[in-house]
Every structure is written in structure tokens, then in C-alpha cells.
Amino acid sequence: MGTRNVKDGLNLSLQIDKDCHQHGAVTEEIDGLIKVYKDEHVERPKIVPCVTSDLPHELGVTSRDVVIDKFTNIWARFYVSIKCHGKLPLLVYFHGGGFCVGSAAWSCYHDFLARLAAETSSIIMSVNYRLAPESPLPAAYDDGIKALMWLKQQALSVGADNWWTSQCNFSNIFLAGDSAGANIAYNIITRPGSFNAGQAAAAMKPLSLRGIVLIQPFFGGEARTNSEKYLVQSPRSALSLAASDTYWRLALPCGSNRDHPWCNPLAKGLDVELEDLLRFPIMVCISEMDILKDRSLEFVASLDRAGKMVEHVVHKGVGHAFQILSKSQLSRTRTLEMMSQIKDFISGI
């Protein structure tokens, strides 16, 4: 046993030396998730397996992958509930991962979104967007808008991909996402020329946005909140303060800090240009044990003071990304609660 450990340690040391020699020193790293070298080479260990679109028949959901833009490799995985008749609402969903990791093909997202489609009797379009640092922001936002423009073309194309468009109610669309994906959904809405302006909304017809679902939205700021400073996280937590800072350094434009409006929408208060924002109802899902809890509560309070249609739920006893990464019984219970709450939000509009 001792000999094998020494050999394993030697092999690891040799591999580290080889990597440093080949790519230079490591400049940024989140253990087990991403490593960025001085020469800008990026490594992402396969910590979560990627899976095909296959699903068990008894779930009552069919899934397929569709290419949106072959030049930038933007694609989406669709989930269509087949237990319901008539037109179904469409959730355009963006996965999390600090803008730097994650995939619509990750097994945890595949499982969660398939079950969410079944629970909410909806169609879900899970968008696979470009990642930082190779493609820093606003690349992910651009990809989200491109996905919406692609949707518009599908709505206007008679018979296009009939396997899902025939069931889709293009006038009943919701944007959704968790963590960085929630940030993407929010920033798509607030970008100039997006859904919030009347002329832009008209240009997007026949698409009609009805609401937004933000799950543990990934925002930040230079000033720390109490939950960021004092909330004790387990070693297996999905998001630490150090990891959050690293994600933002990799994702934001060069020279920006965490008070950039893409990171901190409240840095200068709610922008007056957002008066048209959230004519659509917004739902914010917050985790009690998430370091982002206080920042999310401040975000909700700010929207509420501005007279926006916002509601929030706090999931007790669970942390960031519990719905996709935790297998505990409590997390499973809270995930079912979340799905039911999202269903009520969608059907109540």
C-alpha cells in the first residue's frame, strides 16, 4: 500500500511538472473544475459525466439535441413532455457553472430538466453556450440572444422540426436558469434592444415572453454581504467565496471588477433604463445555506421597491445548486418543492 501511494504521488508530481513545462505556470484554478495556465491553455476535468439525450420511456419526456449555430458550436437539448395534449409553455433554460464550466449534456442537468419538463408539463430548451475564459462575457449573453432569434425562426418556419414545434406555444415563453444561467437570463432581458423595449418585443414576434425564473442567481459585488462573509460552508459546497471570485475574474471583461453591472446589478441602484424591465413576473429561488443568499434577498427587495412583479422562495437547509448536485433526502425533498413552485408560477401567469 505504501509503495503504491509513493508511486502515485511520483506520477502526479511528474504530470504537474510536465504541465507546467508545456503550458507555463497555473494562473487561475478552482480545484477539480478548471485550471488556467499562463499560456491561456484551459483544462476542465470531467468531474460530471456528459450523457446523451436518452431518457427512460416511463418518464413521459422525449429529448433531442439540436444545433443552433454550427460556427460557434451553440446547441440546445430539448425536453418535451409527451403526457399532455395541446400547446405547451416553453422554458429557455441556461445551465450554471460560473460561466466557466458546465454543459447542457451534464448528467445532473439532464436528469433535473427532464424531471422538470415532466412536472411542469412543458417544453424545455437547455442552451449550451460558450464558456469563459476562452469566450468571456458578453459571449454567453450573445449566445442566449442568438438562441432566442433561432427560436423566432422556428416559430416562423412551417413544419420546422415538427417533433417539438407542433406542441410549442411560442406566445408562452419563460426564461430560466440557475446560478450563472440565472445571471444570463437576467442580463439577456436587461440588455439594450432585448425583450424589455417595446420595439424589440415587437421585433421578436411571434415569440412572447411571459416570465422569468432565476434559481440561485450568480451575482457579486466588491462589498461583501453577511452571508458571503459569515455563512459557514461545508468542504463539499458547490460554491465558495474564493471560487466565486475566480469565476468572475475569468468571466468579466479585462480590467473589470465585481461592481461591473453584469456582476452587480445593484452597484448603482436599479438603472432608470430598466423601467420597462419586468413587465414580466419574476420568480427568484434562494437557498438558505447559499453564500449568495443575502445578495439574492437584496436583489428581490430592490425590485420590489421599484414596483416590479417579483416573488421569491427560500429553500430551507440546502445550499447552492442543491437541485442538481446533492443526493441527500432533504435536497430531493426541496427539489420536488422547487419544481412544484415553478409549475405554479408558470401556470399562474
Automatic annotation (TrEMBL):
Family: Belongs to the 'GDXG' lipolytic enzyme family.
Gene Ontology MF annotations: hydrolase activity
Lineage: Eukaryota, Viridiplantae, Streptophyta, Embryophyta, Tracheophyta
Active site (catalytic residues): 179
Residues of the Alpha/beta hydrolase fold-3 domain: 91-323
Pfam families cross-referenced by the UniProt entry: Abhydrolase_3
Species whose genome carries this gene: Populus trichocarpa (Western balsam poplar)
Name by which UniProt lists this protein: Alpha/beta hydrolase fold-3 domain-containing protein
InterPro entries in the record: AB_hydrolase_3, AB_hydrolase_fold, Carboxylest/Gibb_receptor, Lipase_GDXG_put_SER_AS
